[in-house]
Design brief:
By secondary structure, the chain is mainly alpha-helical. The chain contains eleven helices and no strands.
């Protein structure tokens, strides 16, 4: 297992897409902050999402398109072994499918955490520099950031499961980008059809959770629900990916 982990982390350190995708996130974040600044300066009466370092940090995941870009990276990272046929060499050395999955999943989740941390720190620093000492709305920022991280890990677990089913880079990228949004759209249609007062099914899917976790106004009870559901999604997708990988022939 130690050799597998070392191998996967070595591949991660050499993966150009890891650095490119991280850089793209930071560029998009900076554009979002500058745009918010320009709108705030031109229309001081309008409520703008990011007006301080803390608020810019809280909106980092959405402004950087984190889940989409991270999903693209993971698709490239996971599917490369299948497209290059190196996965067969790994299994031929006697490593079990379960151990290979755990090692690859650990490296992918670590990459997600690193990208998440870098993006948030960058947004906090850039927002503080650009907005100065702007006021931040009160809220449980630590809890919201923790919830965002867990939700992003759930997204990564979802992409892992998709990649293990499809195994092709192009198709995996397409599903990583469109899959969560398609599910969200279907749930929104269900909401429109059911018309249940004070309850939205779409609010309990990943995109709905992440939306609430990006708002300082989110209540403590809703924050707790978001974190619990994100943990359930993360565990469910990770477990599904493990058994999918274990049963498939490569």
């Amino acid at each position: 297992m130690k050799k597998l982990l070392k191998f996967e982390f070595y591949k991660l350190s050499k993966q150009k897409s890891f650095y490119i995708c991280s850089a793209v996130m930071l560029v998009m974040s900076l554009i979002g902050i500058l745009l918010s600044k320009a709108i705030a300066d031109g229309n001081p009466e309008l409520p703008i999402g990011a007006t301080s370092g803390k608020s810019a940090m809280l909106s980092a995941v959405s402004s950087s398109s984190f889940t989409m870009i991270c999903g693209i990276f993971l698709a490239l990272f996971v599917c490369s072994d299948y497209s290059e046929q190196t996965i067969k060499n790994i299994y031929s050395r006697g490593f079990s499918r379960g151990k290979v999955y755990i090692a690859k999943f650990t490296a992918g989740i670590t990459a997600t955490i690193i990208m998440f941390a870098v993006t948030l720190v960058f947004n906090l620093a850039a927002g503080s520099l650009i907005f100065g000492n702007g006021a931040s709305p009160s809220g449980n920022y630590a809890g919201l950031i923790l919830g965002q991280l867990i939700t992003c890990l759930a997204y990564s677990s979802f992409v892992f499961a998709i990649c293990l089913i499809v195994k092709k880079v192009g198709s995996s990228i397409a599903l990583a980008i469109l899959g969560p949004s398609l599910i969200s759209a279907l749930l929104s249609l269900a909401d429109a059809f059911l018309k249940i007062e004070n309850f939205k099914i779409s609010g309990y899917w990943l995109e709905g959770l992440l939306g609430d976790l990006s708002s300082a106004a989110t209540s403590s009870s809703r924050l707790t629900v978001c974190i619990i559901l994100s943990i359930i999604y993360a565990v469910a997708f990770a477990t599904a990916g493990y058994f999918i990988n274990k049963k498939q022939d490569n």
